TrEMBL record:
Protein name per UniProt: STAS/SEC14 domain-containing protein
Annotated Gene3D superfamilies: SpoIIaa-like domains (3.40.50.10600)
Pfam families: SpoIIAA-like (PF11964)
Taxonomy, superkingdom: Bacteria
């Protein structure tokens, strides 16, 4: 299963990331791969939609998420996450404050896509 997929919405590059159903150790590996994928693209202003449904999160995962979020800050214009549980939301909000990144949280992929379409409509 391919965990990273490029697409476009309204002419803007979108990176879809599927972190669903991963164990803590697998999440850490994929977070680092995510940075490599984004950095290799080399484009500023990437939009990212990430599925984190049913993943395991711990202190180390959160630390790596914070590091990768800071590294990706100059590349990512907006991030949408879906499949977020209560504790994941707390960690995501904390990482956002620590890195100066804003993460929009949605229940479904379709809601995240709709939000991105709205962002692109007003630029």
């Amino acid at each position: 299963m391919d965990r990273f997929k490029w697409d476009e919405i309204n002419g803007e590059k979108i990176l879809y990331q599927d972190f669903s159903n991963l164990k803590k150790e697998e999440v850490v590996v994929l977070l680092n791969q995510s940075h490599e994928v984004i950095e290799q693209e080399g484009t500023k202003g990437i939009y990212v939609i990430t599925n984190i449904n049913s993943i395991s999160f711990d202190r180390n995962t959160t630390r790596v998420f914070e590091e990768v979020s800071a590294q990706n800050k100059s590349y990512v214009k907006a991030s949408a996450l879906y499949g977020v549980g209560t504790w994941q939301r707390v960690a995501i909000e904390a990482v956002g404050k620590l890195t100066g990144r804003e993460f929009s949280i949605f229940k479904t992929e379709e809601e995240a896509k709709k939000w991105l379409r709205t962002l692109n409509a007003y630029k």
